[in-house]
Automatic annotation (TrEMBL):
Statement: the UniProt record of this protein carries the keyword ATP-binding: no
Pfam family, one: Peripla_BP_3
UniProt xrefs under InterPro entries: HTH_LacI, LacI/GalR-like_sensor, Lambda_DNA-bd_dom_sf, Peripla_BP_I
Superkingdom of origin: Bacteria
Domain (HTH lacI-type): residue spans on this chain: 6-59
Lineage: Bacteria, Bacillati, Actinomycetota, Actinomycetes, Pseudonocardiales
Species whose genome carries this gene: Amycolatopsis magusensis
Keywords attached to this entry: DNA-binding, Transcription, Transcription regulation
Protein name: LacI family transcriptional regulator
PANTHER family attached to this UniProt entry: HTH-TYPE TRANSCRIPTIONAL REGULATOR GALS, LACI-RELATED TRANSCRIPTIONAL REPRESSOR
Amino acid sequence: MTSTRATLMQVAHRAGVSLASTSRALHGTGASPAMVERVRAAAAELGYSPDAIGRSLRLKKTFQVAFAVADIGNPVYVEMMRAIHEVLAPRGYRVVVMSTGDTATSTVDLVASLGSGVVDGLIVSPLRTDDRLVREIQEAPVPVVVIGRALDDHGISSVSTDSAGGIGQAVGHLHAIGRRRIGFLNGPLDTTPGAARQRGFDAAVHTDRTEVEIADDFTVAAGLEAARRLLARAELDAVVAANDLLAIGVIRAVRERGLSVPEDVAVTGMDDTEIGRVFLPSLTSVSLGSTERGRAAAKLMLRLADDPDSAVEQVAVPPELVVRESTGGAP
């Protein structure tokens, strides 16, 4: 029976490189892209499959990184997950997706379990935070990278964006196209995104005539119910929604009232998700760089995995308004 080492040697021979170079190329560590392509082509020709268990035992690593979010079905997190995988996979890491639920306690429990040796690191985007979560992350036995601004002041590596400023961009765009009776449909205010986006709206509208409604969650269904309440009590010519899913609920509620988007009511979302781009009408939305944030978080994780004592780093991804049909932009 051919041994794993002999098979690895066969790959090295086929690729015409040393055994050490072959190992580095297959594991994505310290090899040029050309070398990686050459070695992997040879491995594919020979049907070589690395011994993942043996490698983990030898290096005392699982080569797994957890990506933990409150709602794994949210398209924002799906885009982040793809970007994280694209960065980690060439280095030999698998991405394990976990659901934290919507409470700080459930996220605390997840971080506290990291000592079990299931993963080598955690990338987490918490919906709610508290002091316990801060302590658990600071004392975690494996590297943790946070996607979000809530923990920036606690010496934790993070990737964030300015969602409050993004809401300001949406309001500014609505002002520019002549809308003045602007409503805001937000998610729960006790969440990190809900609180930030409310601050952004309050700062942007000044003395405008406005109405605010709070949805029970950041979902289409919750957005539809909240939008019905909002439109029933106020005659608006524009609605800013705190994310794309809520915005889709708003558009449905507008149509239920026999009105059209954007002629009667202009609608903006936030997150610039794929579903918003293909929806009819296509959704004007503030991009928070989901792909860029996922990619940056994965790069931070690799740096911490290589050197756990490296300095804390906080990366900021700026928001950007993308104008589409829901406010009268080009399709």
